[in-house]
Amino acid sequence: MRGAIIASVDPDDLLVKSLEAGERIVWSDRPHRLAGCLRRALLARMSSGGAFVLGGLIVSIAAVAVVASARYSLAGSLPGTTDVSLLYQLVLGVACIPLGLEAIFFVQRLLRCLDDRYAVTDRGRGIAIADGAVLFFDLPPPEQVVTRTPGDVEHGDVELGELAVQELSRHGPRARRRVTFHDVSYPLIAVESIRSAARRPPFC
Fold first, then answer.
1. Are residues 121 and 193 in the same domain?
2. Contact between 158 and 145 (Cβ < 8 Å)
3. Helix intervals (H) in the chain
4. pTM of the model
5. Could you read off the pLDDT of 159-187 as tens digits, one per residue?
6. In whole angstroms, what separates CA 159 from the centre of its chain?
7. Residues forming a β-bridge with 181
8. Could you tell me if residue 5 is inside a domain?
9. Of 25, 46, 119, 136, most Cβ neighbours within 10 A?
10. Which of 82, 112, 142 is at the close of a domain?
11. Could you tell me if 93 and 194 lie in one domain?
12. Which of 192, 132, 113, 196 is nearest to 158 (CA)?
């Protein structure tokens, strides 16, 4: 199976299908906080430039509408308020097109975030389903696996640092990127489980 995750594929089944022969999952989890997914989806859309383009377009259209309506009103070119109302409706209608598209892209990103899955195996490997892709990487040294979440908090992030990551849909050398397991349950316990898997001897 290559490429982005197909909507009909269960992400938990995809984790199992990503295992090598004889390999076992020793820890797995998923993001548990909707607020965290919302925040990451919003940041992803903003970083992609879509939000800035959308904002600039709406501001530009609104500015043109205000200036045009003011000039027509002062010059007496419009016979009544009906034409001004139609102008505002036209501007709002045009502005709603990119707004609707941006909303669709945001919802798609949010749904992908809710399907994220994280796992570590008995061979010291990590598997992540994130942003519609399946990622593989070797676990870092145990001391590199950390969490900044206090012990009395149920959900939090586990950071694995910058790792060489291979995406299932791409061939070639691995790309280095920061790996974080977001909003997993009982992050302190998760850290110990992942560190234990990282201490396992390499599979021969």
1. yes
2. yes
3. 11-17, 34-47, 50-75, 81-114, 187-198
4. 0.68
5. 999 999 998 766 667 789 999 999 999 99
6. 16
7. 158
8. no
9. 119
10. 112
11. no
12. 192
